[in-house]
Recover the amino acids of this structure.
């Protein structure tokens, strides 16, 4: 899109009825490295392409745990994303304190969307420059949502945002009908395939992607590089026994988590501590 | 010699009605009709600390609850006492909060009414999301705990002990919140005199997966003891049954009680100096 005389202010409409600043904010999302999300009847998987700005630096963190049952992947200005995730965590914790039950992900998404909308209607603010893929559980099961800088939110079976996300979306569009009945391992493999599409020439490894999973009875975890590499290996070598081993491990973990599940509501996992890979978030 | 403050308290009812009288005399009232002396101000004045009502006026007595195989049973009588007088005899002290939760209250009836209004707003706001999620008994129990505790911190308590019972997704919940925010859950709960008279019976006779019959009989047994021994209780009770499908509060009914005892027939027979 090109510069025009109506794009200085977020509070200025163009004659065509557009708010250019909001659209520019959505461009910022498209510049960020890709984030992908997909869900089944029991799990939601988030995957990100991790781009390091130089060989010496580490990559930007794009996967955040919001609560035991909600996590996000972001694309765009990750600084804005950090601020939003702090808000989301605060809302979840407050809800838990008042009601002693987890905040349904759909309600949190609406709250974030309303917060983003405020920034599209104040002359002294600017829209958030980050798109979020929110994975979470509520009473009706697992959900995947997207939050836009415009203040809109959408629910998806599967989606991808960020640069080169179209390649991932093409893969997802081909395969999404089978996602509902996928097992956790199959779902992660689909996510990694989608990431591969976005990476194009690069080799997929645990260094340049990240995966997080949340499911019924399983709290949100960001996979550590060892588990992630195991999934990637199972992908590339197509080894069934590797996958079977993974599945057995996952069953074991899931069983332990379920035994320690003390939540009153059905399905939403209040997970055990120390289960699964080390979680970077507190 | 009449203390001027005592005189004023005797005119208290006139004070409230007669607003034409000079406000100067009515600003500060010394002694109330019930309880220890507590000053309260009709109008905020500089230098006089703001105080809130520190005593209940119209009160309900015990509320009892227990979990049975199909859900939760909660019972209470329908009396509203005004001090030692049974002033109101048709007070509903239990209210369906949503279609799977019931609230019962002992203590100040007006505060119970305020709480039900509060919960109405909460439930409506929750329903307006219309997203397949709704507040269950655990959520409402915790919410009420927060409310009661915060009021206690402001030295302006809602003078109630609340019982919250319900079923959601097959999980039965029965809990209590006091006026200072003490909260807990249990298989059987009582407030007020029920703690001393009914809970011991429950501890002996409650068991897992009681039928509706057994549960109701156990509640009625405890209520009968309360009717005999708690002078604020009356023989007009309601029993509420909360299941996954809904809340059903019975019409008020009376328990069969036995007063044909020798000592009652001629109560003053052995009293010294009676005439």
């Amino acid at each position: 899109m090109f510069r025009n005389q109506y794009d200085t202010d977020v509070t200025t409409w163009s004659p065509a009825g557009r708010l250019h600043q909001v659209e520019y904010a959505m461009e910022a999302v498209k510049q960020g490295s890709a984030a992908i999300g997909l869900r089944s009847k029991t799990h939601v998987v988030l995957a990100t392409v991790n781009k390091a700005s130089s060989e010496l630096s580490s990559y930007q963190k794009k996967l955040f745990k919001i609560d035991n049952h909600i996590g996000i992947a972001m694309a765009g200005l990750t600084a804005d994303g950090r601020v939003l995730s702090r808000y989301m965590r605060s809302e979840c914790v407050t809800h838990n304190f008042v009601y002693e039950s987890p905040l349904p992900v759909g309600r949190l998404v609406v709250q974030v969307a309303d917060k983003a909308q405020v920034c599209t209607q104040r002359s002294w603010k600017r829209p958030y420059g980050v798109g979020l893929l929110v994975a979470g559980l509520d009473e009706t099961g697992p959900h995947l949502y997207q939050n836009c800088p415009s203040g809109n939110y959408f629910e998806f079976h599967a989606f991808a945002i960020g640069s080169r996300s179209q390649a991932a979306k093409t893969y997802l569009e081909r395969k999404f009908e089978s996602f509902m009945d996928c097992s956790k391992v199959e779902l992660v493999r689909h996510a990694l395939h989608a990431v591969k599409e976005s990476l194009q020439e690069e080799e997929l490894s645990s260094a340049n992607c990240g995966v997080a999973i949340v499911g019924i009875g399983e709290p949100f975890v960001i996979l550590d590089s060892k588990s992630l590499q195991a999934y990637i290996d199972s992908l590339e070598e197509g080894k069934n026994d590797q996958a079977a081993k993974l599945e057995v491990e996952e069953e074991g973990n899931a069983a332990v988590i379920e035994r320690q599940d003390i939540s009153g509501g059905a399905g939403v996992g209040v997970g055990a501590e120390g289960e699964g890979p080390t979680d970077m978030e507190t | 010699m009449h203390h001027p403050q005592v005189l004023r308290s005797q005119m208290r009812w006139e004070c409230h009605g007669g607003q034409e009288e000079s406000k100067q005399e009515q600003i500060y009232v010394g002694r109330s009709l019930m309880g220890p002396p507590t000053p309260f101000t009709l109008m905020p004045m500089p230098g006089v600390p703001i105080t809130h009502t520190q005593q209940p006026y119209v009160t309900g007595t015990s509320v009892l609850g227990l979990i049975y195989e199909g859900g939760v049973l909660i019972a209470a009588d329908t009396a509203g006492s005004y001090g030692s007088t049974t002033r109101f005899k048709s007070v509903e002290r239990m209210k369906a909060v949503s279609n799977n939760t019931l609230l019962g209250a002992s203590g100040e009836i007006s505060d119970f009414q305020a709480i039900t209004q509060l919960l109405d707003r909460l439930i409506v706001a929750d329903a307006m999301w219309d997203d397949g999620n709704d507040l269950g008994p655990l959520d409402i129990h915790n919410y009420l705990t927060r409310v009661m505790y915060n009021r206690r911190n402001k030295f302006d308590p809602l003078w109630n002990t609340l019982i919250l019972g319900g079923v959601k997704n097959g999980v039965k919940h029965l809990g209590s919140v006091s006026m200072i925010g003490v909260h807990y859950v249990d298989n059987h709960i009582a407030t007020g005199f029920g703690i001393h008279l009914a809970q011991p019976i429950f501890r002996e006779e409650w068991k897992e997966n009681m039928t509706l019959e057994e549960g109701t009989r156990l509640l009625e047994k405890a209520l009968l003891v309360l009717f005999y021994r708690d002078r604020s209780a009356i023989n007009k009770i309601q029993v509420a049954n909360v299941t996954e499908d809904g809340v059903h509060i019975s019409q008020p009914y009376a328990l069969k009680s036995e007063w044909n005892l020798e000592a009652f027939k001629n109560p003053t027979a052995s009293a010294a100096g009676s005439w």
